[in-house]
Every structure is written in structure tokens, then in C-alpha cells.
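Subject: design request, 100 residues
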């Protein structure tokens, strides 16, 4: 999810999880939450566990700041592999917002 498809725009409140260190995404999400009421953490494939970890660190370890997990969307994308076959890759979108 670290790349954006051609022709699509990345919303300012979206964080795409890739292979960078975990705390990089936690920091990026916290910076976005300072400016936006809700941030959506998105990942697919093997990065899904990292996206869940990011959301849990923000909510559990930053509990004095009052963040909460909102709707979680789970789905799949069809991806064409290098050998030309299509395969389904799992996706997740976790909404994190400031508690009111």
C-alpha cells in the first residue's frame, strides 16, 4: 500500500502502511490526527498486522490523548502477479479518531 495507483488522489487523512519501521507510521498518524478529526490507516497483505499494531499503539499507549478506533473495513483487491495470474490480496482500513 505504499504506492498510489495512477490517477488516484491520496486523501490527507489516509496513512498507507508499508515496510518502514512501525513507529514511523505511528508518528505519521499522530501528526495527521493533530490536524484532522479522523485518520484512516490502510494496508494490504502482509502489512495488515502492522496497521493493526499502529492503531493499537495509538489507542492503548496514548490513552491520555483520548483516541478511539472507529469503523474497520476488511476487503480484498485483485492483483495481477508477475506470472500474469490474478490473485486476491486482503485489505484493511482502520479509522482512528479523537474521542469526544
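Subject: RE: design request

Done. Sequence follows.
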Amino acid at each position: 500500500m505504499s504506492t498510489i495507483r495512477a490517477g488516484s488522489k491520496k486523501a490527507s487523512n489516509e496513512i498507507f502502511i508499508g515496510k518502514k519501521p512501525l513507529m514511523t507510521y505511528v508518528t505519521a498518524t499522530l501528526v495527521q490526527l493533530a490536524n484532522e478529526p479522523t485518520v484512516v490507516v490502510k494496508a494490504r497483505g502482509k502489512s495488515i498486522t502492522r496497521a493493526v499494531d499502529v492503531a493499537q499503539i495509538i489507542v492503548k499507549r496514548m490513552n491520555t490523548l483520548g483516541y478511539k478506533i472507529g469503523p474497520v473495513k476488511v476487503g480484498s483487491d485483485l492483483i495481477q502477479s508477475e506470472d500474469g495470474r490474478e490473485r486476491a490480496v486482503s485489505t484493511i482500513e482502520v479509522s482512528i479518531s479523537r474521542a469526544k
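Helices lie at 22-35, 48-61.
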